[in-house]
Specification:
- This protein is mainly α.
- The chain folds into 2 domains: 10-240, no CATH class; 254-459, no CATH class.
- Helix content is 87%, strand content 0%.
- It contains 17 helices and no strands.
- Helix 8 runs antiparallel to helix 9 (193-226) and helix 13 packs antiparallel against helix 14 (358-390).
- The radius of gyration is 23 Å and the shape is globular.
- It starts with 14 loop residues before the first helix and ends with a helix.
């Protein structure tokens, strides 16, 4: 299948255009941890130790809950990208509607089930009676923002699927910026402590949800007018299509399982590091922060891969799909190489910024070369994740995650006993390579769609 043979084929983008799409994603990702720093600084300067500990515990529960429902972003992206590639704007709005209804239903369920969620969550944590009391106030205040937060996931998923990276950046900056301002006002000026942080976050989530919904609806309405559609904005007959609704729910369940497996792997890794002592745990935590920083960049290119390959997949355009995959992977590979070099040669300076504890610094620096290898070898997994999300091949993603976690556990058992903490880190390198290889094992299933289309056209 070629562009010449199919004049309706999706126009491939240049490297410059792909970079222009990627950098807003990167900045949007990088702005997220800044909020945690500001919250910590506000409470650290205006609140008490109890408030600080309470936010740490409460935020941990929300991180796990919202991580579990991150599928709402990824699942939405793939279906939207494919609908756009097929030039079916009505289906784009239908996906938005279906995913939005799921987000509102799940968010409402979280509010209704807040008591058992709180009981279960706090049963796994121990921070003392005073800290837990304040943490519960934080949790039971902020939980009311769950529907808004989950709907923001959906809105972001639609924006990524459409390739609207600058709109996503504006929305993310508004969310984080308003959150910071409201937190300073509520916790700082009004002196409400941890509850003030929860109130500020809740207000920021709701206001961002309203703004994001308005901006996205306006964007989709403009696209509808450009195509001179006469149908209603919300195509309810398609939104209510239970086969399509189930396809979205099924994809989301697959992604949730995959995400929980990844969370388990990193939690298991951290727990194993703790067995080597407090210094090993501290050094591992610091190097993980450096690793997370590099992920902001690689995630940006993965988002571009989601949109570009998903749209090509929806358009049934093998050529554009191959070019998009090739170009985004080259950009990600070059970026990963530069980041790996930075970690290897300048990582010690980053470690020095995070701690001055001699033992921790020495051990963290010893782990940096392995971290650099991880960073360089991680980009294929990021890119293939993007492809499988963009094409909604979520069952294969789930199965690949199961395979890679099993390989990881085997590597921990074999390398951890022999090489200690460094062996544990090499097991993490094995894990990210296994993620890429297991996804590649299923890659042929992604291209089956193009082959079947070509066979029908040849017939």
């Amino acid at each position: 299948m070629t562009d010449k043979a199919h004049p309706e084929s999706k126009t491939t983008k240049s490297y410059r255009q792909l970079l222009a799409t990627a950098w807003p994603f990167i900045i949007a990702n990088a702005s997220v941890p800044l909020l945690g720093v500001v919250d910590t600084a506000v409470i650290g300067n205006t609140g008490s130790v109890i408030d600080l500990g309470a936010i740490a515990l409460g935020a941990l529960i929300f991180s796990f809950v919202y991580w579990s429902f991150g599928f709402l972003r990824m699942g939405t992206t793939g279906f939207v990208a494919q609908a756009k590639g097929a030039d079916d704007q009505e289906e784009v709005r239908a996906v938005f509607g279906r995913a939005g209804l799921i987000a509102l239903a799940v968010g409402t369920a979280l509010i209704l089930l807040q008591s058992p969620i709180g009981v279960i969550g706090f049963s796994f944590l121990s921070g003392g009676e005073a800290v837990e009391s304040v943490a519960k106030t934080y949790f039971f205040t902020r939980i009311w923002g769950a529907p808004a937060t989950l709907l923001i996931f959906v809105i972001m998923g639609v924006l990524i699927g459409l390739g609207e990276s600058r709109e996503l950046l504006k929305l993310q900056l508004f969310l984080n910026g308003s959150n910071m301002i409201l937190d300073v006002v509520a916790a700082g000026f009004l002196g409400l402590g941890a509850q003030g942080i929860a109130i500020g976050t809740l207000m920021a989530e709701v206001s961002t949800c309203v703004l994001g919904f308005y901006r996205l609806r306006s964007l989709l309405a403009n696209l509808r007018e450009e195509q001179a559609e006469s149908n209603e904005f919300w195509p309810w007959y398609r939104i209510r299509d239970m086969s399509q609704m189930w396809a979205l729910i099924s994809a989301n369940i697959d992604i949730m399982i995959r995400t929980l497996l990844l969370v388990f792997a990193f939690a298991y890794f951290t727990n194993e590091a703790a067995k080597y002592g407090v210094v090993a745990l501290a050094a591992t935590h610091i190097v993980l922060q450096i690793m997370a920083f590099t992920a902001f960049f690689l995630d940006g290119f993965a988002y571009v891969a989601e949109a570009e390959t998903g749209q090509s997949y929806g358009a049934k355009d093998r050529h554009s799909f191959a070019v998009a995959l090739q170009k985004t992977t080259i950009l990600a590979g070059v970026t990963a190489a530069l980041l790996a070099i930075m970690v290897a040669f300048r990582g010690a300076a980053l470690v020095g910024l995070m701690t001055d504890l001699t033992e921790v610094v020495v051990l963290a620096n010893a782990l940096l070369p392995i971290c650099a290898v991880y960073v360089f070898t991680s980009f294929p997994a990021f890119q293939l994740d993007g492809v499988f999300i963009g094409t909604s091949r979520t069952r294969e993603m789930r199965d690949a995650s199961i395979m890679s976690v099993l390989v990881f556990l085997l590597a921990v058992w074999m390398l951890g006993d022999r090489l200690g903490l460094e062996g544990l880190w090499w097991a993490m390198v094995v894990f990210v390579v296994a993620r890429a290889l297991s996804l590649w094992f299923y890659f042929a299933k992604v291209t089956e769609r193009f082959s079947s289309v070509e066979e029908r056209e040849a017939a």
